[in-house]
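Quick entry, no commentary yet.
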Amino acid sequence: MPTTAVDPPKRLHVAVGVIVDDHGQLLIAKRAAHLHQGGLWEFPGGKVDEGETIQQALRRELDEELGIQVTAFSPLVEIHHDYPDRHVLLDVWRVDGFDGVPHGREGQPLRWVAPADLIASEFPEANRPIIDTIRATFGSS
């Protein structure tokens, strides 16, 4: 019986913002229940569209999801993670400046938390290295 080669899923490139307020708190958003990894908390962001730079994607996604305009950001970490059903590249950026007041434009709950209060089990597995990086970079305050 012949076997058919199946191409592995394409790696999904995602722009992620670790948004920091003036008090060192971080903004997290709850994923909608119907989405992959639904019901878990995440750092806001989304898919990089074809022909778009990571910076353009970050700005677009944070405007679409939160209604903010990013003014200051810097690279934080890149994470490659393989779920059984998809492969992701999380391109994570620290966002230290933005205009507007973040709100869940897609109906998602938002929460500001201290880095020390992030609970890894409440996030998708691919986000856990982000939490480790935050703790190492931001300290435990």
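second:
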Amino acid sequence: MVKPLKDLTGMAFGRLRVLGPDTQKNLESRCSHWLTRCYCGAEKTVLGASLTRGNTRSCGCLSVDVTGALRRTHGMCTTPIYRVWQAMLSRCGNPKDPSYANYGGRGITVCGEWQRFETFLSHVGQPPFAGAELDRVDNDSGYGPINFRWSTSKVNNRNKRTTHWVLYRGRRVSLAEASDLTGLQAQKIRWRSLRGLPEHLVFADRKLSRGEAL
């Protein structure tokens, strides 16, 4: 069986919650597959990449619900998801928007398909949890079906291009996340990393000697 790159067990993707790896499917394939349960109760085996990229977000009931909404001429202009769509278009296309400089002003666009609310809704579905914010996986690329995810405001803020990144145990993490993981002050981690210190010294839980810090 192919060993999954990351254990997705217990994680939620749209309407799907991962129960665990599909052992039989993985024996037959070189890719990792996961057994999931939809909020409607149906179980479905899904390719891991489809989950993490946001390509599969339900057992199929999402498209049915969305189609039903569209047949009612959506009537969703006062809903949270409609406001998410409007805000996305505004920050990417309206120079008067307070956030335009960090989006449209630096070339971040919304794909042609998402100019229509109905298509946008069919791709992203409803926000999966209260306070969910639309984020991009690749912070330097525009919004589109293969470059979006729902995240918390905390995660979203850490994905900004101004975020300071460091290596922790071989993984690229934000300064804030590194502070959460180690208990060290973010300012201390930043100071050490900017001086090019090796990882074991950047995250040392003691005061460095003058020779080590230089």
